[in-house]
Task: structure prediction
Amino acid sequence: MKRSSLFTSRFEIINAILIAVVSLTTAFAVWRTNLVGSNADDENRQGLIDAVKKQTLGNEHHRKVYEEAGFAYQFAVKQAEALALEASDDPAAQERAANIQQYLLPNMQLLAQPLATDEKYQRADGTYDLQKRLADMQNAEEDQLNPSASFARADSLFAEQRWLVVGSVLLAVSLFWLALAEVSNGRLRTSGFTIGLAVYLLGILWFVGVELIFFYTRRGGS
Amino acid sequence: MNEPILTQQQQTENSERYKNLIVVLTVFTTVLAAVLAALQADANIRADIANRDSRYFAVLASGELHRAALETNYEFSVFGDYFKNLQEATILELTALEQETNGDNAVAQSTREMAGISQARANMGEKFSIFYTDPRYAPQSENDAPKADQYVTDVFEKSNEIVLQQNKAADDYHTWDRKADLYVTALTIIAVAFFLFGLAQALKDARLRLTFAFFGMAVIGFSLVITITTLLS
Result:
């Protein structure tokens, strides 16, 4: 009777210590799971900020290109008009052409730069390569903004969070079984303790495994 | 002397009845709560991703609409200018013919030169216009008009595609967000079951314990119905 009582008392103490350890582990696991989720949200937020910045730059580039294209078109049309006037037999028309070429066209060309001044944008038929101009506008700052990369990292972190939740659930289940063992007697106590311990170890292994897999996956991907 | 002892034993047995059943039910409820928590977390993550995609596509769609609007504005300005110059050239040419018919040859010559200038402007405009340089929109014959409708359809095609993707992502967000909410509802109901089983465990009267266990099972059944219908929806 005395030995049994001693065993019961020792078992309860060991089980109580184990419950405390499992509680702490569960708290840590839940903290870590939430941290990973929070990091995923941060990456999402960063991705959206980058997307807005990139889109703003893109919008400004398109606006500028079409503004320049409008000026370049007006320049080309005025140039064609001057050439037609120049080809005329009428001296007044020729004088008008000379005036346009001397005073008006240089100013229009300035407005239409760089399309009308840089040869690399000029096509053989007298039109301008707007796509090339747009490509040249895209600067290093715009290239650095990569929302897709942030979203990919967020997706990876979300996937990790999903699997860590499963680990946290296992730890919570083990806590329940150990608590059951603490308040039970006989076979139920032994089986409760065994199941609780097994589920706890499984939960730990699961948690560490998920962390390692995602650590190496992200390191390999980045 | 023996009678009171037997009554006490009966009372003890009575107070211990159905305790194992309550323990089993509590274990089942715990496992169900754990599974529900995982399902809820998963639905929440999916809702977050869909919400992000929806916002991202909204940004892309607005940018694409802006670009398409700038492009169409430019193209229709060029086309309008070309058309104005062409009309001027035609009218001036007709006027010159009329002046020649009236025997006013000097004026007709001047008018014809003006028509030539307008025609030169129109010829240059034609080179710049997508409606005459792109075979998809260019008129098939001299009497045909450019396919402006086709151009408008094409230029907004990409933005329409992005808007479709945005709508799909927004729908996904609503679906997963609704599921996450329903799982939270199921979890809340399970908390009631926990309370009922806890109360049943603490009670000494077997019939009362069974009554609370029954109500607990009913609550779990309701929670299971919500969980399964949400999972399958």
Remarks:
- Chain A touches chain B through 48 residues (CB under 8 Å).
- The domain at 2-221 of chain A is CATH 1.10.287 (Helix Hairpins).
